[in-house]
Amino acid sequence: MSRSLPSTIVHKPDEAEAMSGAYGGTSRRRFLGTGALGVAGLLLGREHGWGIAAAEDEPAGGKFAGLVPFEDEQAAPAGTLLGAELDGRLFTDLAKISPGRVVTPNAEFFIRTAASSVLPNAEGWSIAIDGLVERPVQLGIGVIRKASKAMGAHLMECAGNVARTRFGLMSVARWAGVPVLDLLGEVKRKSGAGWVEICGFDEYSVASRTSDPGASWIFPMGALKEAFLATEMNGEPLMADHGAPVRLVVPGWYGCACIKWVNRITFVEEGAEASSQMREYAVRTLQEGKPQFAKEYAPALTGPAALPVRVEKWVRGEKIRYRMVGIAWGGSHRIGALQIRFSPLKRFEMVSEFRPKQTTDPWNIWTHAWFPPAPGDYQIRMAIPDSPVPARKLEMGLYDRTVHIGEV
Ligand SMILES: Nc1nc2c(c(=O)[nH]1)N[C@H]1C(S)=C(S)[C@@H](COP(=O)(O)O)O[C@H]1N2
Ligand SMILES: [Mo]
């Protein structure tokens, strides 16, 4: 899927252009006007409550001297939609996260597949509920919107989120919608109808170079306890590129299960075949092989994971200090402790400031005072000691990042 990236610009997050507008609308002019220190204050945040040091107790004092870019991460620019339809992508700039900016603004929430140019009008939209039911039902969008209520902040991550695109296929929003089981509870189903296939509109005017059309995922009813059909994100109506008028959100599951433009929910029996989307994402959701039947798929849950998102450089007199800022996430799992290592040859050490991630936190921010012993490349990996479930992608090295330190 990353094959089609329209650009291979190496991102330099310390450039003024990259920083402008980054923190609650700081303009480029304001950035230049206040200088690096102004940005530093914003970077560190003044809000408490996330276990993050405030600007005043910055580890080394001194002057903020920019961000050290991660190496070998070629990426298209973040925050703008690139391409269209099935090849449309928008990458979130994770380096912008701060205690006061935990939720991703709508315009920066990642997009994986942009709205089709032949998408039907939202106003006449309905969801067909059919399959193993006594009588099929058409659920109008008006009814769904009316029943919508706050569903909380949840993280979404594409199963194909990789270093090459700076892990930008991951975001957090505060959603509103209707629990799927509430809607399905109204429908009389036949015996044996223990599974549901949730389908979304997926026809495009142009054939994709990278993805197969056809969006649906098949769930056992029990897996949908927390799932909801979303109509709003961050207090605004869902945007077309995020699945308007209605999309599925399954908290804790990879984005590939979170079908957009939902237009059909079909009750099926346990023996149903897996959908083409499930097969396409089998490897990326860590299935064993490419199973033929839906019931052979493990829940496509994001495991516990952590990632550095920026390396800040600070200067005081002759002294240079580095501070790493990162995130930890993983569905509804609690993460009690976090470790970091700077080379495969070195041991893991405890992250210096980490407030445990509670079950309801979508992600949380950690910081680590870092004293690289010498200039050179550092390969960073995180670890979650006593992880409630195996942190498989983390342990596979899929969230490794490298930074080059020029001076210490
Ligand atoms: N109809 C439809 N739904 C879809 C997709 C799609 O291509 N078509 N892509 C899925 C994938 S792979 C991801 S990661 C999420 C991304 O949602 P977002 O673009 O709102 O971030 O949508 C999912 N839902
Ligand atoms: Mo995805």
Question: How would you characterize the overall build of this protein?
Answer:
The chain is built from six helices and 21 strands. With 408 residues, it is mainly beta. The longest helix has 17 residues, at 28-44. It starts with 15 loop residues before the first helix and ends with a strand. Residues 1-57 have low confidence and may be disordered. Bound molecules: ligand MTE and molybdenum atom. The ligand Nc1nc2c(c(=O)[nH]1)N[C@H]1C(S)=C(S)[C@@H](COP(=O)(O)O)O[C@H]1N2 binds next to strand 3.
List keywords for this structure.
five-stranded antiparallel β-sheet, single chain, about 400 residues, binds ligand MTE, five-stranded mixed β-sheet, binds molybdenum atom, about 30% strand
Strand order of the largest sheet: 1-14-15-19-18
Number of helices: 6
The main pleated sheet reads as:
5 strands, antiparallel
Order of helices and strands: HHEEEEEHEEHEEEEEEHEEEEEEEHE
Extract low-pLDDT stretches. Answer: 1-57
Q: Give the helix/strand class.
A: mainly beta
Strand content: 25-35%
Structure described in brief:
Helix content is 11%, strand content 29%. The chain is mainly beta. The longest helix is centred in the first third of the chain and has 17 residues, at 28-44.
Strand and helix map with partners:
Elements: H1 16-19, H2 28-44, E1 63-68, E2 89-90, E3 111-112, E4 126-131, E5 137-140, H3 141-147, E6 149-157, E7 170-179, H4 180-185, E8 195-200, E9 215-220, E10 228-233, E11 236-237, E12 247-249, E13 262-268, H5 276-280, E14 305-316, E15 319-329, E16 339-341, E17 349-350, E18 353-354, E19 363-370, E20 376-383, H6 392-395, E21 401-405
Parallel strand pairs: 4-13
Antiparallel strand pairs: 1-14, 2-3, 4-5, 6-7, 7-10, 8-9, 8-13, 10-11, 10-12, 14-15, 15-19, 16-17, 16-20, 18-19, 20-21
Bound molecules: the ligand Nc1nc2c(c(=O)[nH]1)N[C@H]1C(S)=C(S)[C@@H](COP(=O)(O)O)O[C@H]1N2 and molybdenum atom.
